[in-house]
Amino acid sequence: MNGFVTRRGGRLFEGETPFRFLGLATPDLFYNEAQLLPDFSNHFPDEFEMRDSLETLRQIGATATRTFGLSVQSPRDRAPAFIVGPDGQYNETAFRTLDLLLALCHEYGVRLIIPFLDSHSFQNIRGFDEFAAFYGKPGEAFFTDPQLREAYHRLIRDVLNRRNTVSGLLYKDDPAILAWQPANEPLRYFPYRGKPQNERIITEWTLETAKFVKSIDQRHLFLAAGGDARATWRATISIF
Question: Is the predicted pLDDT of residue 227 greater than 50, yes or no?
Fold first, then answer.
């Protein structure tokens, strides 16, 4: 792993060498989605499980992979989550799992694309709706409400400035991270789905998020939502 991956025009580079990658999405890298024990004690994978996944990626030639977003606690779930309450309440055990994963990525030569949150609300892996509920707001307000925007920016700031308990690196200084994403599938957020007029709202939110991330972390790439968000992708790439 030779420093940070950078963009020049429409190409990625690792140092002076063009950087190309293939890989599988690995949402289970820092928490297990299925086959959970009754007490959920295995919700966060151990070192063996992380090494097993990273070794699999290495053997197929993958130099990058995409994880899932940081989970949000819900009263409907018993499984632990990364974000457990408003105003910076986090699960340290969860983040130490991510710390270890990032440290191991250097050993295996695999970089991570990490969304900050999920837009959906899946059992044990919650997103926008549960994050907004911490502040007494509906999930539909996530993209536009000033209080929720401030809370979301606080989450981003805390993540970027977290010091890894294994490697000692701040997340914003760790080349094991290939790129940040604002969220998993924001354009597929259920209340907005199939409503083209909401693409402008999500595009503006994405650009605002990109500028906020870059105000703290100038070294990592920022990936827009992609998928059917072609306008969002073009706008973001043209700036960053």
Answer: no
